[in-house]
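Homework help thread (please don't just give me the answer)

Our assignment gives two proteins as sequence + structure token strings and asks us to describe the second one. The first is just a warm-up. Here they are:
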Amino acid sequence: MLLPKIERFLRDSGMPWTKFGRLVAHDPRLVHDMRLGRTPRPAMAARITRFIAAYPESLHAR
């Protein structure tokens, strides 16, 4: 599931969920809507995954 990965990323990075949505999808409500059941299309899911993977490596070492 994608949402648990996002939640873990937000917790580990300290990034606000609105900023994450703006940076990934130009949509500050992305995470909020996903928490309410929104399912991103495959292209958006891939974009989210790439963003998390590309974030500074020091974050992933925690």
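The one we have to describe:
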Amino acid sequence: MKCPYCAGPNTQVIDTRENEDGDIVRRRRRCVDCDKRFTTYERVELKMPLVVKKNGSRSEYDREKLEASMLLALRKRPVTAESVDAAVTRIEEKLLALGEREVGSDKLGEMVMRELRRLDKVAYIRFASVYRAFEDVDEFRDAIREVKKPRVARRPRSV
């Protein structure tokens, strides 16, 4: 692994940990040349579906782009990087579970909104205002009411 600071080829693994699900390995590394430390993540690379945009064009799924859009909505909000990473991972798991070769950007946007709603209500409103292209205050008011509304508890099914 090359050092991101000095591009030196000599790095050592200092610490290795798996996440709770065991599907991501986090490694702390130290560069032998410049002595700086950095973190790398290893995860299984699976074939993600293509994203079909509203205009019909297709693009490859990009984890960094998805994470960046969520981080923009979460800017200056009290949400940890680990929570964001877990939310992005849940979205990816849902995309893979669909088993489809292509997914609409609208479906992906709805998945992001669900995760943001779980993480932070203000970030959810921010994202929704852009994603749904709010045009007036009434649309903001409706979205806020939707967030404030208590969720209905599911009744257990009788056997």
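TA reply:
I won't write it for you, but here's a hint about the kind of observation we're looking for: The two ends are 54 Å apart (CA to CA).
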